[in-house]
Amino acid sequence: MSSQPPLLAVDLGGTRMRAALADARGVILRRAERLTERERGTAHIIQRILELVAEVKRDEPASCIAVGAPGPLDARTGVLFHPVNFSEDDIPLKTILEERFGVPAHIQNDANVAALGEWKFGGHGPTEHLIYVTVSTGVGAGIISHGRLIDGFNTTAGEIGHTIIDPDGPLCPSGHRGCVEVICSGTSIARTANEALQRGRGSSMREPVTAQDVAAAARAGDALAQEVFLHAADILGLAVVNLIHLLSPEIVVIGGGVAQAGDLLFDPVRAQVRRYAMPLTDRGVRIVTAGLGQDAGLVGAVVLAMRQSEA
Q: 0.85 exceeded by the pTM?
């Protein structure tokens, strides 16, 4: 182990929370994970975060804690503002962690953190312009431009999931209609399929289904599943087109649980880019799956911790 104190990294994205202890070079020494159990409320979530960090920390000293958390959040104050799909309450996570463990805590949007992980350790080759899109319980994006993480004036840049693509579309938990997230997320894919089944649509699927169930049924030829999944993939493709037009990346990395559907997701997304991206803007842009898979957020939190410990 390095002579420097180890780093603590936490990933709160998706349905499972993950934590790791890493040395100053970013090598993970031990890790743990558990279900978030969001349905049990904010106090329970906070307690599980504290228990998870304590489990990997044990009696080790640590130089800092870096966390990838669902937004919206203020990375400067470390406050999560009733993040959709995570909690109905504001959570002063930075203060909670610092008071419990006595070391500096650094909070960043989970998609931003995953973008750092994919950029540094995802195996995508040298690049200074990368966008990471996570499609899981929610949809978000992390932006690397000229080798720097771009989080904007109030540290909320990258909320592609809450850009509005259909003002007359379904109601999003954010309070608006037709957000990308309310159509494309794993939660939304499952909801759309279940609602269709409740209306009596014929299908081999039986409710309740998950997004993974819909993907599996689509691969097996189920017409309803194919319709639901293709619509979500098409809308995600339009969101990627918008990102390409706005930010001109070299590579768009798509991760999160829904990305595990592979070509069922990626083929329609790439087709939308070919159809709608303006000439030149999409030239040479690669659209690929996350090289780190489900570990993108955790590895990215390690990268964030390394950066903060060197600052």
A: yes
